[in-house]
Amino acid sequence: MERQIINKKKRVFSLEPNKNPSAVFTRKYTSHLVPALKKLNMNKNSSKQTVKHEVDMALALSAQEFPWSRFLLQKLSSSSNPTTTTSSSSDGIRILERPDKEGGNEEGGIEERLRELKKLLPGGEEMNVEEMLSEIGNYIKCLELQTIALKSIVQDST
Amino acid sequence: MNGAIGGDLLLNCTDMSVLERQRAHLKYFNPSFDSPLAGFFADSSMINGGEMDGFLATAGLNLPMIYGETTVEVDPRMSIPLETTLGTGNFKKRKFDTVTKDCNEKKKMMNREEVTEGEEEEKSKITELNNGSPKSIKKMKIKAKKEENNCSNDSSKVTKELEKTDYIHVRARRGQATDSHSIAERVRREKISERMKFLQDLVPGCDKITGKAGMLDEIINYVQSLQRQIEFLSMKLAVVNPRPDFDMDDIFAKEVVSTPMTVVPSPEMVHSGYSHEMVNSGYSNEMVNSGYVHFNPMQQVETSSDPLSCFNVRHIYSFIMFHHLI
């Protein structure tokens, strides 16, 4: 098994490049992001915002089959300094407080959570619930792959 | 002569089903028949002594005894005329079986007072049917059943669900209403729970949680943590500028070569048991497979406060490549 892998190091991309969708996405993503980062690096103005912008842009461009990516693209292109898709800190706090609130009405709690989920997904607020749930699945997948790619890039650079 | 005697006995037996009786009739008169219905209608007049009431041989039998619980004699009569118009050429045994089965079902459903008005409708529908083509018969039958459903708005007794191409006819389960609104509502709810189940498999650590609320919480937490991770990583990326000779191929190749030992298929990798339908997307099962694998190690990462320190990217990346290579 080792030998096979070592022997195959020259051809690391599969013969059928479009077969494995996660690989396709990862490749697309890195191919979008890395040149953008290089360019940013050249320009010496790699602030956090712009990098985040590029990161999100790469995500949106690599996942164009999904409605949420279109929404994301719209949001990104409409403003150069976008409000990030993650309002992380405030949401984090809110999630922690939630357990006190949720004790009451189960049905109402579900509605609330669905609304929360909608906010997380770019463009989620315009979708109905079923659509949103399936889109969330795709979105989670892409986010996971994105983290993998980012980590490997960061790892490689350090 | 055994045949004749046997046939006689059969004819007098009252606890046989309609089908069996009619077959017995046929056998009696035409011992060499193979298709149960080919010569059926031709012979029916003989059975009744020339009395052709249009309902084949059933009129001469004790039908109420078969459908013992009800006094609705109309049941079998309603379906049999359907048969007449179907034409002898197309007749298959199975069709008749389904008709008798439908008879039984209809009988069950007809144990109610409201049925009478439904009956009228069905009767009129059936007479219309007799002029219709064979293909439309089933449709009309379904239509009739649907109207019957609509007539009886109270909960009916338990029967199976019936699906056809044009209509989706759902027999109401016990204690549930049958109007179109609640049916649509129920379909919608089922769709939602189906997607929730898929999400449950997607998000690690969700299988222990039951209930929509808890699961939604988990999903929200997971998405938020992913987004936070990404933000953190991009921040780190902004600090650590990529090297000028940053080469993608290098990354991929390097990862594979340097970690030959880590590419051992873990048990999770081998399984391909996922068969979720991923609605709305072009992604197939492989997406789920590989994603699931990658995120087992990451699961540990998320519980720790510093996602990057104890995490081995190469480990993960080689998994990607391994999956690639397979």
Mean pLDDT of chain A, rounded to whole units? 71
**How much is the average pLDDT of chain B?**
54
Oligomer: heterodimer
Percentage beta strand of chain B: under 5%
Radius of gyration of chain B (CA) equals 33 Å
Q: What is the rounded distance between the termini of chain A?
A: 30 Å
Number of beta-strand segments of chain A: 0
| Separate helix tally of chain A | 7
What is the N-to-C succession of helices and strands of chain B? HHHHHHHHEEHHHHHH
- The beta-strand count of chain B equals 2
Secondary-structure content class of chain A: mainly alpha
Q: Per the principal axes of the C-alpha atoms, what is the gross shape of chain B?
A: elongated
* Rg of chain A: 19 Å
Structural class of chain B: mainly alpha
Largest sheet of chain A: none
Between the first and last Cα atoms of chain B, what is the distance in angstroms? Answer: 72 Å
Organism (chain A): Arabidopsis thaliana x Arabidopsis arenosa
Biased composition (Low complexity) (chain A): 77-90
Protein name (chain A): IBH1-like N-terminal domain-containing protein
Subcellular location (chain A): Nucleus
